[in-house]
Design a protein that fits this description.
Layout (H helix, E strand, L loop, with lengths): L2 E4 L2 E4 L1 E2 L1 H18 L6 E4 L5 E4 L2 E6 L2 E7 L13 E9 L5 E5 L5 E2 L15 H17 L5 E8 L2 H5 L4 H4 L1 E2 L10 E2 L4 H17 L4 E5 L2 H9 L8 E3 L4 H11 L3 E7 H4 L17 H11 L4 H9 L3 H8 L5 H19 L5 E8 L3 E5 L3 H7 L3
Length: 375
């Protein structure tokens, strides 16, 4: 399997539940149509990487063939790593179509706005197409032109789903069969952004008109406990604030509220929209620059530059008579950058806080949006 380097470490790629489902379906189709299951098969993925996989538990019972492929997430932390994805294949006599559905361990969609309609199995379009192509390859080898029913199942899927966002998204009783590329990249940033997109899709489809974004647990906990907002209406966007804002605008949200800890949001004042510390960490520099604009002493500027956390910066500034001016200056920069990001197309408001000092800065109409998001 292909490897990559992240943070100086060699890390191994894995493959998605979608690739597992496609390979299992291909193996089970060959077993059904030829009577033999390959010990190894080569699966072509949308990313262009070929996988050599070993089917497990091949059997035919009551004219239904089944096989499993074991999930390997590589060096990406994934609750589905090691589980087996099963495919059950049988011939259809009244159609030449390939029909795909989910069985045990695969979730069902209960909310609008997701990639599949309400009531259908949580098998996303890209892996569904991957399954179809894999099955067609097997049908061609066996010279079969009839129809097939494919049922995809996930070992321990119902239990594993409890460790995922599925229930929050409106997917019940199992995991989702996912993967646009067929390959799992270590510490995949795209996977995190895709989850944010799914949640925004669902909320927008339900008619929510405010994209309520929290970068992480600090933000959502503060929004719930201090601002008394309905967290069921919030989406955690991790460090990918810019991407979440862009997607909310793309969907058509007319209002956006961002509630976040100053450790992340203060970076927006410098135009940083991916707030992971490995990408950019300008917290001290931002405080120092705005403090300098407000006329603090060289000694305080040096102390700010040596500080490690936002709270430490605030500890240094709290006894000055211009801390309010400094925070106001930072706040105006945040507001300017956010409006630049949305190109002034939608209303965007923010609230920045720390757990120690509470709300540090907020845009003029942020509290008005909060009223619409109260529990």
């Amino acid at each position: 399997m292909k490897t990559t380097f992240k943070n100086g470490k060699k890390m191994r790629f894995g493959y998605t539940t979608g690739s597992c489902a496609a390979a299992a379906a291909q193996a089970a189709t060959l077993l059904l149509l030829t009577g033999e299951c390959p010990k190894k098969l080569i699966l072509h993925t949308p990313k262009g990487i070929d996988l050599t996989l070993s089917p497990e538990e091949p059997q035919i019972k009551n004219n239904i063939a089944s096989c499993a492929i074991r999930k390997d997430s590589g060096d990406d932390p994934d609750s589905t790593n090691g589980i087996r994805i099963f495919a059950y294949v049988q011939k259809l006599t009244n159609t030449c179509e390939i029909l795909i559905d989910g069985g045990y361990g695969v979730g069902r969609v209960t909310r609008a706005g997701l990639a599949n309609p309400i009531g259908s199995a949580a098998i996303n379009p890209a892996p569904k197409e991957q399954i179809i192509q894999a099955v067609k390859s097997a049908m061609q080898k066996a010279n079969y032109i009839g129809g097939l029913s494919i049922i995809i199942c996930a070992e321990n899927g119902r239990e594993i789903a409890k460790q995922t966002y599925n229930e929050h998204l409106g997917i019940v009783d199992g995991i989702s069969i996912l993967g646009t590329s067929g390959i799992v990249e270590p510490m995949s940033e795209q996977a995190l952004m895709d989850t944010t997109h799914l949640e925004l899709d669902s909320l927008y489809a339900e008619g929510q008109d405010i994209a309520f974004l929290c970068p992480g647990n600090y933000g959502s906990n503060f929004a719930k406990n201090s601002l008394k907002l309905d967290i069921e209406k919030a989406v955690k966007c991790s460090n990918f604030i810019g991407d979440a804002i862009d997607y909310a605008v793309y969907l058509g949200f007319k209002k956006i509220l961002l509630v976040g800890h100053a450790g992340k949001l203060v970076k927006i004042a410098a135009g940083v929209m991916n707030t992971h510390s490995s990408v950019a960490d300008a917290r001290q520099e931002i405080f120092m620059a705005h403090a300098a604009l407000c006329g603090v002493s060289h000694e305080i500027l040096e102390s700010l530059m040596k500080s490690i956390t936002v709270d430490e910066c605030l500890d240094i500034l709290k006894d000055t008579d211009i801390i309010g001016s400094i925070l106001d200056s930072i706040g105006k920069s945040i507001e300017k950058r956010l409006n630049m990001r949305v190109n002034n197309k939608v209303q965007i408001e923010y609230i920045m806080f720390t757990n120690k000092y509470g709300v540090l800065s907020k845009s003029d109409c942020a509290l008005n949006l909060c009223k619409e998001l109260k529990i």
